[in-house]
Design goal:
The protein is of the alpha/beta class. The protein contains 9 helices and 14 strands.
C-alpha cells in the first residue's frame, strides 16, 4: 500500500486514498476524501452479505512451512498435513482475484524472537505439553539426506516460519508477525487495518479453530465485520472442532462463505459491467 507522497502540490501523509492528510503550506485537509463505494453482494451464511471492496481486506493466517510443508515442524512430528494443505489452492485463487480488485492481502504468521522473550510460559506450554520433544523455537532436525536445512520452529526469518512456496505472496502484500494465537495481541495489525480504512475482514488459513478463530474473534471485538472463507481454512483438530468453529462464527462472530461464492460474485459483477459498457458504447 502506498505511503506518504506528493500529489498536485499537496503532500499526502498516510495511506493514499485510504487514511491520510493532504498537506499544503497553508492548509491541512482532514476530510480523507473517500473512495467510491464498490459494493458487491455475496452468498453467505447465516445470511447473504453486501460488502464494500474498498473497505475490505483479506487476512491469511499461518500458512507456513512449519504447519504445511512435509519437512516442517508438524511434518516432523508425523502429523497428517492434508488438512493444512487443502486450503492452498482456494487461497491462491482468492488472493489473485482480490489483488486484481486492489483489496489488501495481509499475511499474519508466527514469527518469534530467537530468545523467546515474547513468549509466555502458557504459550510455550500450548505446544509443549510433555515438556520434551520440539516446541516453539526448538531446532527441527531434518531427515538425513534431506535438501532442507534444519530450522527453528516458528522462529522469525527461519525457513519454517516462511509462507509455503505455493502461495507466493506479492511484494505489495502486507506481512505481520505474531507470537500468540490471536494476530491482534501485541502486534501492529489493528493499526495497519485502520490505516487501510478496512472495516470488513475476510479470513483464511490454519488452524481454523485456533489461530484463525482467535484472530477473527478479536477482530469482532475490535468492531470489524468478520467473514470466514470456509474452504480457505483447515485444521488438524478433530472434525467436530471445525463444525463448532463454523457454528460459532455464524452464530456469534460474523459470517461464512466459500471462495467460489466470493469469486463468482466478483466475476459476475465484472461481466455485467462490461455488458453495460458495451451497450452504452453502441
Amino acid at each position: 500500500m502506498p505511503g506518504p507522497g506528493k500529489s498536485n502540490d499537496r503532500t499526502v501523509l498516510g495511506t493514499t486514498g485510504r487514511e491520510f492528510y493532504a498537506v499544503t503550506p497553508t492548509t491541512v485537509d482532514l476530510s480523507r476524501t473517500p473512495k467510491e463505494t464498490h459494493a458487491v453482494k455475496i452468498k453467505a451464511a447465516p445470511q447473504d452479505v453486501l460488502i464494500d471492496l474498498n473497505k475490505t481486506a483479506l487476512i491469511v493466517i499461518d500458512m507456513q512451512n512449519d504447519f504445511c510443508a512435509p519437512a516442517g515442524w508438524m511434518g516432523s512430528l508425523g502429523v497428517d498435513l492434508a488438512p493444512t494443505r487443502k486450503p492452498i489452492e482456494p487461497i491462491k485463487r482468492v488472493t489473485a482475484t482480490l489483488r486484481a480488485q486492489n483489496v489488501p492481502i495481509l499475511w499474519v504468521n508466527w514469527g518469534t524472537r530467537p530468545d523467546r522473550l515474547n513468549l509466555s510460559p502458557g504459550t510455550l506450554y500450548t505446544f509443549h505439553h510433555a515438556g520434551s520433544g520440539v516446541g516453539i523455537g526448538d531446532l527441527i532436525h531434518t531427515p538425513p539426506g534431506s535438501a532442507q536445512k534444519s530450522s527453528r520452529a516458528l522462529q522469525k526469518d527461519n525457513w519454517g516460519a516462511a509462507i509455503v512456496d505455493e502461495l507466493a505472496p506479492e511484494p505489495t502484500d502486507i506481512f505481520v508477525d505474531k507470537h500468540r494465537i490471536s494476530g491482534f495481541w501485541d502486534t501492529p495489525l489493528d493499526s495497519i487495518l485502520r490505516n487501510l480504512a478496512a472495516r470488513t475482514l475476510l479470513f483464511a488459513g490454519i488452524n481454523a479453530d485456533e489461530c484463525v478463530l482467535g484472530t477473527l474473534m478479536d477482530a469482532n471485538f475490535h468492531g470489524y465485520d468478520t467473514i470466514m472463507l470456509e474452504d480457505c481454512v483447515g485444521t488438524t483438530s478433530p472434525s467436530f472442532c471445525m463444525e463448532a468453529t463454523i457454528y460459532n462464527v455464524r452464530f456469534c462472530f460474523g459470517f461464512t462463505m466459500t471462495s467460489d461464492a466470493l469469486i463468482g460474485a466478483l466475476t459476475n459483477q465484472a461481466a455485467e459491467k462490461d455488458a453495460a459498457c458495451s451497450v452504452a458504447a453502441k
